[in-house]
């Protein structure tokens, strides 16, 4: 056990977040995302939803401030009338962590899959909301971000 580490984050995810460098990306995938077929490491967090994992990860993970949009959401497929209300939850969590709405972009489904294949890892969740997939681009940790 460690102090101040959100208990929802398993050791494999903590290790992955730590090993990632500036500009590396991680995918938080909903339960329908083809995580295992992406050809990159998969961290299983099946019992959790994306919002609670996003909230916990952002306590430790700096978003890249050197790019226009360090957060990517999978866009709605053309013709689909579903409206992902989970995006409002994401925007709130991201805003609480200093990420403006303008720093969030959307990507067409197959382009999102292609980008995901180049990510550092996929976190496979049990999230049941549609279009709940998120890509986060890691930024830098500044000296003032370190406690000791």
Total E-strand runs: 6
Largest sheet: number of strands, sense, barrel closure: 6 strands, mixed
Instruction: Count every helix, treating DSSP H or I runs of 4 or more residues as helices.
Output: 4
Poorly predicted ranges (pLDDT <50, ≥5 residues)? none
Instruction: Write out the strand line-up for the largest beta sheet, numbering strands in chain order.
Output: 2-5-1-6-3-4
Shape: globular
Our measurement of the CA-to-CA distance between the termini, rounded to an integer number of angstroms, reads 19 Å
Name the helix and strand elements from N-terminus to C-terminus, one letter apiece: HEEHEHEHEE
Helix content: 10-25%
Assign the structural class, choosing from mainly alpha, mainly beta, alpha/beta, alpha+beta, or little secondary structure: alpha/beta
Mean pLDDT across every amino acid position: 96
In percent, how much strand structure appears in the residues?
15-25%
Based on CA atoms alone, the radius of gyration comes out at 15 Å
């Amino acid at each position: 056990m460690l102090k101040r580490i959100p208990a929802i984050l398993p050791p494999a995810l903590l290790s992955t977040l730590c090993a990632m460098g500036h500009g590396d990306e991680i995918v938080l995938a909903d339960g329908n995302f083809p995580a295992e077929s992406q050809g990159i490491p998969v961290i299983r967090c099946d019992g959790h939803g994306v919002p609670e994992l996003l909230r916990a990860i952002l306590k430790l993970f700096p978003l890249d401030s050197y790019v226009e949009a360090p957060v990517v959401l999978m866009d709605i497929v053309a013709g689909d009338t579903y409206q992902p209300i989970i995006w409002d939850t994401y925007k709130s969590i991201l805003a609480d962590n200093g990420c403006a709405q303008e720093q969030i972009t959307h990507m067409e489904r197959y382009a999102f899959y292609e980008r995901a294949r180049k990510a550092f890892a996929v976190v496979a969740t049990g999230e049941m909301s549609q279009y709940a997939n998120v890509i986060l681009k890691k930024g830098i940790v500044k000296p003032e971000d370190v406690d000791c």
